[in-house]
Amino acid sequence: MIRSRTGGAFPVRHYFLLLLLALIPALASADETAPARDPKQPINEPYTAKIKKYTTAPVFTSPLVDYLPASKNVPTPEVVLGDVSGAPGILPYAEDVYKYMRLLEKATPRVKVFSIGATEEGREMIAVAVSSEENLKRLDENRARLAKLADPRTIKLDDAEADRLVAQSTPVYYITGTIHSPETGAPTALMELAYRLAVDESPYIREIRDGLITLITPVVEVDGRDRMVDLYRWHLAHPKDFFPPLIYWGKYVAHDNNRDAMGVTLKLTENVLNTYVGWKAQVLHDLHESVPYLYDNTAGDGPFNAWVDPILTDEWEMIGWRNVADMTKFGMPGVFTHGIFDTWSPGYLMFVAALHNGISRLYETFGNGGADTQERTLDPEDYSRTWWRQNPPFPKTLWSQRDNNNYEQTGLLTSLHFFNENKRLFLKNFYLKSKRSISKPAQEGPAAYILPADDPRLELQTELLQVLQKQHVEISRATSAFTVAMPVKKPKKSSKKDDAKDAKETEKEKAAEPTSREFPAGSFVIRMDQPYSRIADALLDHQYWSPDDPQKTPYDDTGWTFGELFNVKLFRVTDPKVLDFAMERISGVKPAGGVQGQGSLFAINNNAEPALATLRYKLRDASMEAAEEPFESVGKKFNRGSLLVRGVARSDFDRAANEAGVRAVALSAAPSVKTHPVHAARVALVHTWLSTQTEGWWRLALDSLRIPYDYISTQIVSKADDLNAKYDVILFPPVGFNSSSTAIINGIATGWGNPLPWKNTPETPNLVGKNDSTDDMRPGLGWEGVAHLQSFVAKGGVLLTATDTSRFALSIGLADSVSLGTPTKMNIVGSVLSTRLVDSASPIAYGYDEKLSAYCDNGPIFSLSSIAGARGFRRLGGHSTSRPTGRGTADDPDFTVGRPGFEAPEEPTSELWEYPPVSDEQKRNGFRVIPPANRARVILRYADAKELLVSGLLEGGDEIAQHPAVLDVPAGSGHVILFSINPVYRGETRGTYSLVLNTILNFDNLNAGR
Ligand SMILES: [Zn+2]
Question: Would the pTM of this model clear 0.90, i.e. be above it?
Fold first, then answer.
């Protein structure tokens, strides 16, 4: 409704304006259907009485959900739950939710259940379509119409034809529940919602049923749901005890399952994405729980993702604010849409819709993390009245799962109704967004991205193309060579700090930048004149988050540029002529592997591709060696670290190489180059019982590369007195949440409370799944565990750590020559930074080039010291390197009256990533001076400040610029490998995986090239 702000009598011209507005459909319609039940339809009295009983205050419900319509033949959720949806003490497993949905399907032609795939642990995922019998009968016809709107090329971008299709089509509104397992309310809310949509004969609900198709995935994280229900059952069986926190959700990650919409590495993302795209849905509405009582973060806060269409940002505001208004009219407090959530990162599941021409939506409702009714006390920031939350929540409330279900269903029903009333508008927008995606080359650009056929990293290139294919992006391949004009890069503005040498280098780079580039036949072209160009562009482009942005707390990562993080060659082409060259659409991208040439020795060039490690473990009996220097053979150049494989039949090798996507050359004679053996190291991956999510991404990477490892907790390390007997390499990936060393060692306090078991019991049959178990999650690594790790390294083991576990390794004295800097202004929030190779002879660097982009989230900042246990000396007076006050100018030599002058010895200097030189004074009885052989090798360092940022937010970058990014620290007979970057993260950083894999493959020869 559009209303006059003054009200009362209108001047005549306003009256005409109102008449005009009334002609605008839907948004201004004066005869909206009232949200009220049909008095002619009987209600289910006992069910309705229980709804009332479990709702803790009359304002926590609405006329849409405060009753349940009766049905003679359709069962209510009670048949499965034993009580009504949202009843205290009742949390159904996914299986029970499915059972109910299938009972509905049997009982009414208005419900259809579809299987949409399986999870990592093999559990089923479903989508439930609810609509009129008529609509469900004509799903295929309707889908064919929607498909034309989704791909306007099929109707030659004809707007009139689009209007005809819009008028005939039924839109699809897709709702997804409980991706976050401790957010437990959605499944029961969605069971009851499906019932209402199928049964209720009130005009308000009937319009929704007849007007659109509601598609529901009631449980997205099915593995995690079953674990959460287990824990809740355990809690009910042990009401006086504390219950264990949900440390595993899915097999690999917890909360980050909602950060996978870029990399699509989890089954749940892939299944929801395929369903969304397959149904040609217009909306993806994802249900979460956190803040009171309903935060519709559709409208969110800035900065908005730069690649979404402004048509979408308008839809966000339109739908979000209308949703708030509708629920406010019911008198429901605490409904709001503006808030702290920025809409920059496209990693959230809902962004599947945002970047595939649909509408992304998300609710945060208020949940108790289970089905207990509890007294909840809010923080002042959650109950204060603000401009965007005029009717805030109460400071203190008795809150039930039913209240939560009321809010979820009321929000969804009003949304569905509003969407249906304006469906022509939204369907037309869907078409327009698709059309504008296709018009991208002629509008904002670019015209295409090109992945050249001569990239030395074809395996990583294939992996990047496979991500794009999972995103339903079309890929073409050039059938002949072609040349395109390339945009000339403007030279970066020099800062005051740049010295003359840097300026000269910049000048050289500028001159070397070509204005056109030739690409060989077979190069891949990602055309931007396709319906899903947005997602490709968003993943492949660079991101810039200004340090001056008013948003000071980015909600998630600020940079993700996939070409950079995959370490592949990628060219953004703006010249639309690129689209005219001969190319063909390809349907599948497969890694090109196998062996060429004659001979029984197989040589594999090392370009830092993960599949090399896969092959090492696949061909366990083969003998493999790594070349310590580059070499040439049969006219081909091989990089340092290239593998020489012997003792395996050609057919076996060829098959394995083919499967792994590794290209090899057969040689008849061994090249004359120094080599060392490459053994299949015995690997352990250590996790804490504090959090398993960040290391979960490492497990996922190792599993997908088929690299075997033992998965052990810090508690196992504390009991294992001879780790060397079992392992060569121990990976201790980041714990996450900047875990302190104290927390890693101490775990959770055991001085009070009960043990927190994580194991399968009669109440918790699904808890462990394929992960780890313990009788008590609380104990940490302990000091015994610290000693075991120290002894493991001293006796020759290799310990690899990253970010917070690198801090931990330093805190337990495993790297005496490395210290941590304390940033004062540095702010790097999940950004892509540039690093430089320092020691190309180190096996950890095998296959890498001079420049490498890496994921960094605020360091840590490593510095090196040549003095063990270095501590500052007390000086008398201030320390100064400038000349004293005296004669002449600042650059002139000083003099001393009455004696000849002297030349001050030149102070030796070093770069920030290097060891500071040892002074003559330090060498006197220098028992603290670390001999060169005991010093860390700097494998990678961060780039200079002005070249540091690749993508995202970088503030105060000079504090980490040039500092070491990856270090190999000798300790006893072993090594500690310290990462400041996180090399294995969210399936997005595959270009840096080989830093870890090289460490594993060369664990017993890390000193090579020293
Ligand atoms: Zn959530």
Answer: yes
